[in-house]
Amino acid sequence: MENFFELDTLFKIEMYNFQILENTFHIIDTTSKMECDIKLLSKSICTTNIEGNNKFNYIRMAKCADAVIIRKNQSNNLDLHIIELKKDIHDKDLDKLYWQFLGAYMRVMYVLVAYSQVDNIYFYLISDKKINTSNINICQSTNQKKNKNYNRTLFDESKVKNQYHFNVYPFNLKTLNITKYNLQDSTDIVI
Question: What's the pLDDT score for residue 140?
Answer without folding.
Answer: 44
